[in-house]
Amino acid sequence: MRLGFIGLGAMGRPMALRLLAAGHQLVVWARRPESCQPLIDAGARASSRPADVAQRSEVVFTMLTTGADVEQVALAPGGLAEGFAAASILVDMSTIAPAMARALAQRLGEGGVDMLDAPVSGGVQAASEALLAIMVGGDAAVLERVRPLLTVLGRTIVHVGDNGAGQIAKACNQLILVGAIQAAAEALHFSAVAGADPAKVRQALAGGSAGSRALELMGGRMVDRDFAAGVEARLHHKDIGIVMGEAHALGLCLPVGGSVWQQLNALMAMGWGRADTASLLRVLETTRRSAG
What we know:
Elements: E1 2-6, H1 12-21, E2 25-29, H2 37-41, E3 45-46, H3 50-55, E4 59-62, H4 67-75, H5 80-83, E5 89-92, H6 98-109, E6 114-117, E7 120-121, H7 123-128, E8 132-137, H8 140-153, E9 154-161, H9 165-194, H10 198-206, H11 213-224, H12 233-250, H13 255-269, H14 280-291
Helix pairs in contact: 4-6, 9-10, 9-11, 9-12, 9-13, 9-14, 10-11, 12-13, 13-14
């Protein structure tokens, strides 16, 4: 198929390369032209603006940071909406607010363009190995049209519901994930202060009911004091902000989410937004020193 891809960062680049390797024609665009080079080297063609990507594609994928980014690429002058033909499809794989996903789907639908919100979970390694979990909101018939493309990118593809439902599922994913990272940080911080070896505690916990990917991966980084960005904390800060914004709008009390949100706010204030979310451990350590 003739495909477009916009958003060639840590996640988007391996995803776009997977589509290209599957034999599809690929047109790419990025705000920083140098981001396109690895794709061009692999056989993709670069475009000068999003509208041109849409004009040359049957399906366009976006993998951007914020809802404002997706809205800009889709609807601003020179955006995708200017180039899409009727019956084209936008598959937005970014993590954005459900309301934004619904609004974009409505606006594009007025021009005869279908949209799926299809955020992913699994991280860069899963993107590279086509093992992503993909949570899809939108029309089921549209999903079936692009399912063969999604199977190139992920192992698990679940149709959650109408537009916005994929983003609701992703918000739930992030609430559980970042809550588990915070719990791992608290457990390892507690063990160190209480006089036990955090590495041994983590090893013991990993074999029991407390074992989890958060403890395995993030806990490992905490034990190793490796806070270089695997997933930049600012992205989890943005995602939990979406969760809490939705909770506020719905009048929901999310005590764990609220606590994690405050810890992430502190992390950002300490200047660790581009470090790994394992830096939640450092927030606890810094707070203890300050209190002492």
